[in-house]
Amino acid sequence: MNKKIAAGILAAATLGTVLLGSAAPAFASSGGCITGDACLYYSPNRAGAKFGKGEAGNYSGNFGGGGAGNGQPVLNNAASVWNMDHNFNLRVHYREYSIRNSGPNQFVPHDQWVNLGAVPWNGGSVNMRNNNHSQSWENR
């Protein structure tokens, strides 16, 4: 009986290690977006491959989920963004996260989506589509 229990425990531990070892970390999207994420899309109007990111910081990783842009880097390739957070507003930044406040950004209210586009900057405008480097969250 003890050998059967030990064998069962070993099998369960091995299966758990295999399953956990193959899981992607929460911040590395495979095309999934969940509540609380900024869901970036490769194409306008929430179309094409997508990438979910819940924390502030630079964009890294690739679009997933199939469609146009599948497998492409997220950095400087997003055309639309859906803020799937119910409590925080989102800012998509033109520059890397460490210097985010020194460059243009596009505001995305909580529970809404936008096509990235022109935003005012230094007396002119900057097109945020395919010029997205990082994101930050702010209270609404």
How would you explain this protein's 3D organization?
By secondary structure, the chain is an alpha+beta fold. It has one helix and ten strands. It has one helix at residues 2-22; strands spanning 38-43, 47-53, 57-58, 80-83, 88-93, 105-108, 113-115, 118-121, 124-127, 134-139. The longest helix is centred in the first third of the chain and has 21 residues, at 2-22. This is Peptidase inhibitor family I36. Keywords: Signal. It comes from Kitasatospora misakiensis. Residues 1-28 form the signal peptide.
Keywords:
140 residues; alpha+beta; Gamma-B Crystallin, domain 1; four-stranded antiparallel β-sheet
Average pLDDT over all residues? 84
* Spatial order of strands in the largest sheet: 2-1-4-7
Distance between the amino and carboxyl termini: 60 Å
Proportion of beta-strand residues: 25-35%
**How many β-strand stretches?**
10
Count of individual domains: 1
> From the structure provided, what is the oligomeric state, counting identical versus distinct chains?
single chain
At a glance:
The protein has 140 residues and is α+β, with helices and mostly antiparallel strands. It has one helix spanning 2-22, and strands at residues 38-43, 47-53, 57-58, 80-83, 88-93, 105-108, 113-115, 118-121, 124-127, 134-139.
